[in-house]
Structures are given as structure tokens and as C-alpha cells.
Amino acid sequence: xxxxxxxxxxxxxxxxxxxxxxxxxTIIWSFYHYNLMDGSTSYYVGFKNYLDVLKSxxxxxxxxxxxxxxxxxxxxxxxxxxxxxxxxxQTFKGRSFFRAIIIIPWALLTLVNGLTWQWILNPGYGALTxxxxxxHLLAPDVNPVWLADPSHLVYFxxxxxxxxxxxxxxxxxxxxxxxxxxxxxxxxxxDGANFWKKIFHITLPQLAPSIMMxxxxxxxxxxxxxxxxxxxxxxxxxxxxxxxxxxxxxYFFLGKASAMAWMTAIVILLLAILxxxxxxxKE
Length: 283
Known about the structure:
The chain is mainly alpha-helical and 283 residues long. It has a single domain (32-52, 59-282), classed as MetI-like (MetI-like fold, Orthogonal Bundle), CATH 1.10.3720. It has helices at 2-29, 48-55, 57-88, 95-101, 104-107, 110-120, 127-134, 150-178, 182-190, 195-223, 227-233, 240-250, 254-282, and strands at residues 32-33, 43-44. The protein has a two-stranded antiparallel ribbon with strand order 1-2. Helix 8 (150-178) crosses helix 10 (195-223). The two termini are 43 Å apart.
């Protein structure tokens, strides 16, 4: 027993130092005025940081933008992930090959993903502009600057994120599909059920736990989006995570940044609880 504890100690120490302590610190800092730049000592302010964040126009805009991004990206990823999983669950020649290559977008670095979509949307030589010219949907002398309008940037970022993360949901749902007993489908065929009845009365109910897990994981990931926005748009589109990062590491408002981080965590937790309640009602 003692020997086992000795083996666990290094990992436990690293876990405490890299996770438990930072989490504890941010909880404490969120109730303090803590700014490394002004040279003043930190002091207790109660819920002032949280109230200031809620009143902040920047936070409200970033939160709305993050919610829009999360809803759109997760919806697209779930839809296309489900369709892809259904296709890859069928028996056809080359199925193993397609199951292997579908993870490529997910495996690519976010930097590569962002640069690829920047090339696709380039107004001069981008693939989208060239395609629209060839289809005569754009005049030859018209080269739209797709990324010029900040209000539209979030939608292009959604496409880039969905392209990268759809394989992740596909893998989860494919595993769930393979766990569904074929006897259920055989029995439904005897009852004369068509394709759509099988989907809505067998596949989706049986797949609900996998769908819920995919929704929770991707909602958490999408809500914390930072890297794809930074690579894709720079400072043009700000998410809650980006705003929190700037307050913490650019302006060193550690108290305010900690409050932002915990408010974001609370929103994610509430969304996860909502998903679980919806799942329980369906069951």
C-alpha cells in the first residue's frame, strides 16, 4: 500500500500544482481587486468584479458572439457528424479507408485549419471566389473580400470549426451506432418500418447517450473557442475566452479575468445540466 502511494505521489503533486491550485487561486482572485500593472496591493471587493463584468459592453458582445458561434458550430457538427456516422456504419467497399481518412481534418493543427480557410476565402485567388466565377455566379471583375465585414466573420469561423470538429462527433456517434443491436432493425423490418421510422424510433433513441456526450463535449469546446479565432481573424472577432485572455495576460486584470472565467464556467455548467435534463425527459 505504501509503495503504491509513493508511485501516485508525483502524479498527484503535478495534478495539485497544475490544476487544483490554479482553480483555487482564480476563485479567490475573482473576489479581489488584483491588478499587476498598477502596483497597488490586492484588496477584497466581494462580487464587484462579477457585477462589473456583467455591465461590461465588451463582455456582453463577446458572450453573445460566443453563444451564436457555439449554437451554430455544434448544430452543424452534430448534423453532419450524424450523417457521416450513418454512412460509415454501412457495409461497402473501402469502408475502412474512409473511416481512417475522416479523422484527418480533426488531426490537423488549428493553425493549418485557419490558414487553409484563409486561402479558400482569399478575394483574389481563393477557391471560393474562383468557383463562383467559374459557375458565373460572380462577375469576372468582382472579387468579394469575404473577411472584411466583422459581423460575417463569425459565420466563416463556424464553417472552419465545423470542418475540423465534425470528425470528432462522427467517431463518437459511430461507436454508438455499432452498439445498437441489429435485432432491433430486423424486427422493425418485419413490422414494415421504413428508413425514417427506423431513424426516429430506433437509431435516435438508442443513440441518445452518445449524442448527449458529443453535445456536452463540443459545447464545452466551442464555448472556450480561442485558437481558431486567433488564427483565423486575429483581433477582428472576440470571444469570451479571448477577452478573458486579454484581461489576464495583456492588461493583467487578474481579478476581473478570474470573474470572467468563472462566469463562463457557470454558463457551460448550466448548458450541460440543460442537456442532461432534456435527455432524462426523453428517456
